[in-house]
Design brief:
The chain is of the alpha+beta class. It is built from 8 helices and 6 strands.
């Protein structure tokens, strides 16, 4: 415990180095004032007494540098001694050492994971033009404890008439897994339901082919799919002739 308190005190001394320098300056000033006052009582003028006090004390700047050097050298030496003591203690108690290392590893791993999520979700801008202009709105229902739920189609169409928004597109909250068939073994793929204006809102354009129009969104229109570049390469083999052909999702033909 004594070593721990000593180590913390030395760390504080390094961190608060400016305060230590101020305290040293005050101590030097005190000694100079005391010596100058003694010389003045001996009959010297204030200016001459101050000059002789400075000469007797020696270089003020040199004294400051020497004090800093001693402080840093002592801290390094003491820190090395504390490190050796800590290592010896850990060798005598390997179980405690292993528990400490595992705890640190878990803590660092958790902190890294949390930062990665925060960085991706909150810090990095969305990969779309003018992301600061994008907002998400949804329906709230206090009785059913709904918050930002998918809007009813009629409400969505009413919202589209509002002048508060330059454009609006709808999407089903979250991703759903659907079964893709027609390209070898059936496989589960991630999909989302969006309206035709969704791509216009994000101001994104396909590399090949086209997105679907808003009128192709609702019941009665031919189901249309826009596939990602990864899906196109991994599942459709990167074949440009696949653009415009039908695929089957959940047993339903989609263009």
């Amino acid at each position: 415990m004594h070593r721990l308190r000593g180590l913390l005190a030395r760390i504080r001394a390094i961190v608060h180095g400016e305060r230590a320098d101020r305290e040293l300056d005050e101590e030097i000033r005190f000694h100079l004032d005391q010596e100058a006052a003694k010389l003045e009582r001996g009959g010297l003028s204030p200016e001459e007494a101050r000059r002789r006090a400075m000469v007797a004390f020696g270089g003020v700047s040199q004294t400051r540098e020497e004090h800093r050097d001693v402080r840093v050298v002592r801290w390094v030496a003491d820190a090395s001694a504390d490190a050796r003591f800590a290592l010896r203690s850990l060798r005598r108690a390997p179980v405690i050492a292993a528990a400490a290392v595992i705890t640190l590893a878990l803590g660092i791993g958790a902190a890294t994971a949390i930062y990665t999520v925060v960085d991706a979700v909150l810090l990095k801008p969305l990969p779309f033009p003018h992301p600061e202009q994008l907002v998400v709105i949804g329906e709230d229902n206090a009785e059913r404890e709904w918050h930002l739920q998918d809007a009813a189609p009629a409400n969505y169409l009413d919202w589209k008439q509002l002048s508060a928004f330059e454009s609006m597109g709808g999407f089903a909250d979250g991703h759903a897994n659907v079964t893709f068939t027609g390209g070898g073994e059936p496989r589960m793929v991630s999909a989302a339901q969006v309206t035709g204006s969704f791509f216009q809102v994000l101001d994104v354009r396909p590399s090949l082919g086209r997105t679907f129009r808003d009128e192709e969104t609702w019941d009665g229109a031919t189901p249309t799919a826009v596939v990602s570049d990864r899906f196109w390469r991994a599942v459709l083999g990167g074949d440009s002739s696949a653009i415009g052909k039908s695929i089957r999702l959940n047993g339903r033909e989609v263009q």
